[in-house]
Amino acid sequence: MRDKLGNMRISTVSLAVMLLLAGVTSVLAAGSEADFKAAYAAAEAANKEAGQLRNQWTVTAAALAEAKKAANSGDFDAATAQSKEAEALAKASIYQATREKEAWKALEIR
Question: Rounded to an integer, what distance in angstroms lies between the CA atom of residue 67 and that of residue 39?
């Protein structure tokens, strides 16, 4: 009897551990999705600012599309990475636009 009771306790503990791990996994996945959504929103905002400066890059749009594609397939790590790349590209285009806006003043007329 004790042997059956001991096995039942081990099974109960095993079941509890499996349920705990399943809960942790779903929380981690939800965190990754939240990270993606935040990164994607930041990238879209930067791309919108670049558009207002009339200097959106096509590679930024491509990175945003890849991020959305990865997110739709459930790969939130790749989606977050693509979103961060898109944000960096958009910020680079913003920098380029603002720098070139003033750079012409430094040119010499010959």
Answer: 10
Residue-wise burial string across 1-32, b where 16 or more C-beta atoms lie within 10 A, e elsewhere: eeeeeeeeeeeeeeeeeeeeeeeeeeeeeeeb
Q: Distance between CA atoms of 90 and 51, rounded to whole angstroms?
A: 9
CA dist., res. 88 & res. 59, Å (int): 11
Domain ranges in the chain are: 33-106
Report pTM. Answer: 0.69
Would you write out the chain's pLDDT as a tens digit for each of its 110 residues?
445 544 444 444 444 444 444 554 444 445 589 999 999 999 999 999 999 999 999 999 999 999 999 999 999 999 999 999 999 999 999 999 999 988 888 887 76
Structure tokens at 23: 């809960």
